[in-house]
Design brief:
Layout (H helix, E strand, L loop, with lengths): L20 E2 L10 H4 L3 E2 L7 H7 L6 H13 L7
Parallel strand pairs: 1-2
InterPro entries: YeaO-like
Protein name: DUF488 family protein
Organism: Lacticaseibacillus paracasei subsp. paracasei Lpp14
């Protein structure tokens, strides 16, 4: 079985149908839970607050962010083995 993953911004109207997941520890401002039309809010697998703040959406930090986030995921008990 091949799964197709599509990335969408929560602030835009959904473009694709399917199972919608928000991976973020903080609920997006200005978005109601009804308008978000989510199937799952997976906040426990989002990057830690510390990592998110360190990254600060700086593209130059992305390689290190990715490394640290994958390490967080590997140590996360909320993910299956």
């Amino acid at each position: 079985m091949i799964l197709k993953v599509t990335l969408e911004r929560i602030y835009q109207k959904p473009q694709a149908s399917g199972f919608r997941v928000l991976v973020d520890r903080v609920w997006p401002r200005g978005i109601s839970k009804v308008n978000a039309a989510l199937d799952l809010w997976a906040k426990t697998i989002a990057p830690s607050t510390e990592l998110r703040k360190w990254f600060g959406h700086d593209p130059e930090k992305y390689p290190e962010f990715k490394k640290r986030y994958l390490a967080e995921l590997a140590a996360n008990p909320d993910l299956p083995d």
